[in-house]
Structure formats: C-alpha cells, structure tokens
Sequence to fold (60 residues):
Amino acid sequence: MDLSDLKDGVFCKVIAGTHKGKEGTVHDIKTSKSGEITITVKQDDGVRFKTLAGSVEIQK
Fold:
C-alpha cells in the first residue's frame, strides 16, 4: 500500500486480519510506539473498528 494515499475520509477495504472483507472510510490515523500505523475504519452502518494500515487496500 502506498502510505501517501492514506488520509482521513478515503474509502478502503480490509484485505487481511480479523476484519478481512469489511470496508469503510479511514479515520483516526495513528502511529504506535512500536512504529505500526493503526487506523479506525467506519463502516456505512456506523460501526467502527481499529486495524493496521497494512491490512487495508485504498479503493479509488
């Protein structure tokens, strides 16, 4: 994934991990102390979940 495309409000699909197959908009981008980038994904129905940025694919 190109991290330059990762911005609040972009649409993404989760391609790996617990939430694989879910999609929504990116919010709350943070970098953990260990250097991992985490994001909150908000689905169309309002449900939010956190995942690693490396687990998502930005939808154009």
The first strand starts at residue 11 and ends at 14.
